[in-house]
Amino acid sequence: MKTVFTRTPTLKDCPTHYCPGCGHGIAHRLIAETIDELGIRGRTIGIAPVGCAVLAYNYLDVDMVEVAHGRPPAVATGMKRTNPDKIIFSYQGDGDLAAIGTAEIIHAAHRGEQITVIFINNAVFGMTGGQMAPTTVLGQVTATTPQGRQTTSEGYPLQVSELLALLPGAIYVERCSVYNPAQIRKTKKAIKHAFELQVSGAQGLSLVEVLSPCPVYWRMTPVKAMEWIENEMTKVFPLGRLKG
Amino acid sequence: MSERILMCGNEALAEAAIIAGVDAYFGYPITPQNEIPAYMSRRMPEEGRVFVQSESELAAINMVFGASATGKRAMTTSSSPGISLMQEGISYLAGAELPAVVVNVMRGGPGLGNIAPSQGDYFQATRGGGHGDYRTIVFGPSSVQELVNCIPLAFDLADEYRMTVVVLADGILGQMMEPIVLEKKPRRKLPAKDWALTGAKDREQNIVRSLWLPEGALEKHNYKLKAKYEQVQKNEVICEQYEVDDAEIIVVAYGVAARIVRGAVNKAREEGIKVGWIRPVTLWPFPTEQISKAADELRIFLTVEMSCGQMVEDVKLAIAGKAPVVLYGRPGGSIPTVEEILDKIKQLTIPTKRAK
Amino acid sequence: MAGKIVIDTERCKGCGLCVVVCPKNCIVISRHSNKNGYFPAQVTNADCTGCAMCAIICPDVVIEVYRDENIVPIEGSSKKTELTKERA
Question: Distance between CA C56 and CA A25 in Å, rounded?
């Protein structure tokens, strides 16, 4: 019997704190596999956000830093500029990147920082108990939109990838998802491409937005959550390669 | 480069940082320190080093955080309102025990205030404007030469104690031109940065963090930081004093205010008044012992500040009621004159009406 | 049996994603909870082809997949695997 699938070394062999069915675990695996396949574990530095993935350094066996909420793109700038030979990636949730950290991600992109950003969009603030995020969809009930998100009071879901794709400094922007194995394979390809761009020294920022389930705060089973992404979320956040 | 050259404080401190080996400078425009980012944008690339004008001071301090986390010498400068935006970042630098140098060319506050010199950020610098128990080393230079001298020392202390070092200049010091000597000084013996993020090649992963969730873990971390800060208090106090031994009045002042006090004290001495001054150079760690010792004999202490009185509280703490402490403060970017301070000193010499 | 999977049932959180994604319905949720109180996934029949769909979607990466050498593996079936079936 040939081993067809097994845990990649950079993904630490330990349980995670993520809820059952949470997409972070999948994204961590894809990043770890990419790092091992590109053979860059020895020169990669990762940035963990404030949010459910704040403990990412317990699972990704590379040099990592945990920074203030929303500030990873600025920290990444400081790291990459002073260490151009290192591979810097920022792993952020929708609260971290699209709420408090909007200025940081826009300016890192607008400066064309040669970093890779993995943006996990699960349409809520997970760590703090399921509050509305900028990417919460209309009508979605959260801890802070008990009546469901309304345009009149909470505005519209923020399409970050489209926003960033406008900036010349962002050279690769793709939105993908993890709602089934085929989609997960596409996400792996996108993440790998984003890292390959940085490894090749391409001038500009690469960002992969991953639509990811949050079963607990969507109040759904993990299976239903994946279906909700496929049937509902992709209507608001169309999948595809927006740039590069 | 050891001959004397004429340079304004802002550019002098920038060149001093380059000589001290700063790897990266991140800044944002704000008067009265605009000359620094401008100077750095020209000189850093010349040295093959990093200059980034960030989108905000908040981003700048986080860029410092990133560069510092990889073991590089990183620095940012700003002025009062910008330094307020950096307080979150400074608290994270403290929690993650990352070295950094932050220069605050103070201006009038609060709010947008004005662009005149001020010392109104003393509390923010010495008590910490961010969250949690932490300290930063704080310098209060009072001449362009002293400003230049404390930059390499700031980088060494930052690396030695893995702390943020704040240099409090102000609008005058930043804009004023004075003849200075710029020399490359030998660095202290500094610990290796084996904690730095350089890529986990042939070693375990390094993690730079400030989150300590398990019960008791953060308490332990806080005690570790506290022990470090106590070392700094024991070893790194810098304070200057003049004509204190026979003095009946002692004026305590730092930075530009101390220069004006020097003029007033000299004049008072010429008029036969027994007055001296004490000038803290490190505002944290504060020279508590020197001031306390000076208060062992009955003297009147006058604190002169360009604020409504902030350092005066540290003076009172140091004196602990042994002697009276009077404040002469002028806030809002106003600058006290020699004559005003001389008058104040003279008022303190009028013998009290009670017993002779 | 062209393939085989091994599930680390102690670390599985019983999310059920592998159950619905398996084209051969080889996986069900066990009635016995593990030490963390989750009801983990377990393999039931021998129809596994080693396609690794379960392992790909597993958020906790607790599934190892093996495949027979001599049997041509079905490389990611072209048919789009919808998660239509809901397995209790």
Answer: 11
CA distance linking residue A128 with residue A95, whole number of Å: 10
Q: Is B98 exposed, middle or buried (0-12, 13-18, 19+ CB in 10 A)?
A: buried
For A6, name the nearest residue in chain C, comparing CA atoms only.
Answer: C64
The one-letter amino acid code at B307 reads S
* Beta strands at B207-208 and A63-66: parallel, antiparallel or unpaired: parallel
**Does residue A119 fall inside a structural domain?**
yes
CA distance B129 to B127: 7
Is residue A8 assigned to a domain?
Answer: no
Q: What is the pLDDT of residues C23-81, one digit of tens each?
A: 999 999 999 999 999 999 999 888 999 999 999 999 999 999 999 877 555 554 433 33
**pTM to 2 decimals?**
0.94
What is the CATH code of the structural domain delimited by B4-193+205-235? 3.40.50.970
**Å between C51 CA and nearest CA of chain A:** 8
Q: How confident is the model at residue B353 (pLDDT cuts 50, 70, 90)?
A: low
For residue A81, count CB atoms less than 10 angstroms from its CB and return exposed for 0-12, middle for 13-18, buried for 19 or more: buried
Distance CA B46, CA B51 (A): 10
Q: Which residue from B minimizes the CA distance to A43?
A: B199
Please state the ipTM of this predicted complex.
0.92
The alpha carbon of residue A169 and the mean position of all alpha carbons in its chain are separated, in whole angstroms, by: 19
Residue C35 structure tokens:
């030490």
Chain A, chain B: beta-carbon pairs less than 8 Å apart = 126
B240-347 CATH pick, 3.40.50.300, 3.20.20.80, 3.40.50.920, 3.40.50.720: 3.40.50.920
Supply B314's token pair.
């540290």
